[in-house]
Design a protein that fits this description.
Number of domains of chain A: 2
Largest sheet of chain C: none
Shape of chain C: elongated
Oligomer: heterotrimer
Helix content of chain A: over 70%
Strand content of chain A: under 5%
CATH topology of chain C: Helix Hairpins
Number of helices of chain C: 4
Number of helices of chain A: 27
Helix content of chain C: over 70%
Radius of gyration of chain A: 24 Å
Chains: A mainly alpha (588), B mainly alpha (163), C mainly alpha (103)
Order of helices and strands of chain A: HHEHEHHHHHHHHHHHHHHHHHHHHHHHH
Number of strands of chain A: 2
Strand order of the largest sheet of chain A: 1-2
Number of domains of chain C: 1
Largest sheet of chain A: 2 strands, antiparallel
Strand content of chain C: under 5%
Largest interface: B-C, 86 and 74 residues
Distance between the termini of chain C: 56 Å
Amino acid sequence: MAGVLVLLTIGLPWTGALIVAGYNGNNERLQHGLAVVFSVLAGAAGLGLLTQASSSVTISLPAGGVFGDFSFVADGLGVLLAAIAAVIGSLAVIFSVDYMKGEAQLGRFYAFVLFFIGAMAGLVLTSNLLLMFVFWEITALCSYALISFHNDDPKAVAGGVKALIITQVGGIGLLGGALLLFSYQKSYDISTFLANPSVLPGNILALMAFGCLAAAAAKSAQFPFQTWLPDAMEAPTPISALIHAATMVNAGVYLLARFYPAFKDVPGWSQTVLLVGMITAILAAVMALVATDLKRVLAYSTVSQLGYMVYAVGAGGIFAAQFHLLSHAVFKALLFLGAGAVIHSVGTRDMRQMGGLGKQMPLVRTVFVIGALALAGLPILNGFWSKELVLEAGLVFGNTNGMVWAFGVMVFVAGLTTLYTLRCVWMVFYGEPRGHLHGHDAGTAMKVALVPLAFGTLTTWLLAGPLSQLLAGVPAFEKIGLDVQSTWFFLGEVLGAPATLITLGVIGLGILTWYMRSNLKAASRALGGVSWAAGNSFGFEAINRAVVWVTQSAAEELRETQTGLLNWNVAGILAALVIVLVVLVVGG
Amino acid sequence: MDFALIVLGCLICAVFAIRTQRLLISALWLAGASALTALLLYLLGAPEIAVIELSVGAGLVTVLFVFAINIAGEEIPIKQSIMPKPLAWLLIAAAVLLLGIMVLGPQLSRVLTGSEPGFAAILWNDRLLDVALQVVLIFAGVLGVLGLLSDVKKISKDGNNEH
Amino acid sequence: MSINAVDLVVILVLGLLGVGFYGLLITRNLIKVVVALQILVKGAMVALVLAGNLSHQTNLGQSLAVTVIVADTIVAVIGLSLAVQVRRHFGTLDIKSLTTLRR
């Protein structure tokens, strides 16, 4: 049963992608309908998988000796992310019915979205590291294709190319790790590796660990790769919600969590992961505070929250990281889709021209506020519970490893999060209208997508118990002491922890700062230098631009080798033959 | 002794086939190389192949070349090669030397013993798939040539390249 | 050092391969390209027959060589008819002026 569901979760979206891509007619409603049907079916299959999680191999397709078997294991961690990808994918597709109404080339759009959903499910469900790399690259390809969907807009194309190059640079780390694993273990199987990580000698294991960290950091837009995500906001907003908030960027966190039991003993690895998460969180929070583009604020907040998750993984709180992943996927998708409704109705992304839109868009305002409160970490909403668990895990780790100051920074970031969230909500929905914008409330399809997400934001924290059951079923996590607990246990833990009180205090400070902002003008002028640096993303933008420029100019130079002349092509063949012969003769 | 002469002759024919500037002469040298190769194959104990090589290589292909060269017409050959000659020499020398080291190093001995099924038996029983594929190839070749050469009339009318 | 017959044939194979590749590297005329290909394949075929000879499987070697000859002849046929058409369309057989891969 589980095997069938796995194949359905991957195969249904891919079949849908083929059908929608191959459709040549003009019936727009048919395209919308087909995409919705396939994505909803995939969502159902993903949810069904949740009930069938088991840590044994569910499906194994033999692929010859070189690649090992293409095996899929529907264990707790995998089905969690697969279900998130499929369900939020279907909601994003439903949202697109309204958002992309009347757009050209819908076939291309839906085909790539469905292709992506299937690839993401495959990425988290497979236990063959090479196959995971293939799915990784497929998601990067779909991300690029969808960011540059409006390929007549040079900013969109530049954003897509940049995202592609930066995530590919990280992908090299993953490929290197896969090849290293194969050369020592003679197979790509992740489960056998996790059961016995010592099959790799110490320094090779460290290489693989840091390679995977680089790949995860690039994919999840962590320090120092964080600048591609804000530029990816040129994509249509449902794409931003799906790919760049709820699913693809979680692939990096998934990778780190999956391999944590094997890498945690590599000296310096946990601390590096924790630091990467922390630096990212604070950098992104500061940049979100000064951004004026609505989607950029949300993008920076995504990066910052991913920093929380990475920080949690580094501190050993795998459950906390995955719980926050679940909460974040739900409320961030909600926020993005809400922002999409706003942008679709007023036609601009600039927050300085918005204001007072709450009166014109009551439903969107309500759901957006719910999502924003979850992001800020106010009690009762799912963001509060998961963020507190993350901070608590960080505090425990900090106490035993002398890194309590990292915990302090993260609490400060929680306050910053509250501040920029309130700023964003205020600038868009409250106050007096600054521009002359006419908004209308969300259409039906948008509402159908937004309301379940809002409901989820209010309730997913109740799933803590079942979530721990899922994760504890993964053999590798059992080894590091992840037990099955009930929801009440976690709630009690959060409410009783010292970290909670500190954080609530800081959040309160954040709210206070916002309301007294006019009194704090002097302070904000003093910090003006920081805000200018934040506006320029602390120089990372320049570095990433340089990387992209180097890659593209190298590609242009290498075009010279494609001469089209027979003589040079034959020379190439001969040169390759000589190299092979040298290897054979010398190697004996 | 006879082997050495044949080998030498074949190599000389091949070299001259490449070196000469005139296409017809090149085709004739190629025919000579084919004939000598056929003789060599016969001496190696493969008479059927020798016959096929003689008739196809030295006969059919040469006629084809003469046809094509006559239709295409000779043109003034350009002597300057695109690639610098020393580079070509270097690559060739490296490849041939390495291959020679690999092949000539171990002692290859020539022993003819035992019996095996006849040529026809092997061809039509074991290698039947090969024969089928050869038939497919011949069909493909004929169709390709027909398609290529039938273009002639259309081209001279509208002067546009369609293939 | 006595060179036996097998070594001579190997030298022939190497020589034909070398000359064939050299022709492919140097020539600028399409028809000469086909000539060079023929020489190259001739070398490969002799190698096949030699291998069959050495492993007491002459007939198997011959069967494989027949396939090679047929395939090679078809290649020559199509290559030559392509050359004829190229001559008609572009007016020249020089491969340098035939390349259209531009920046």
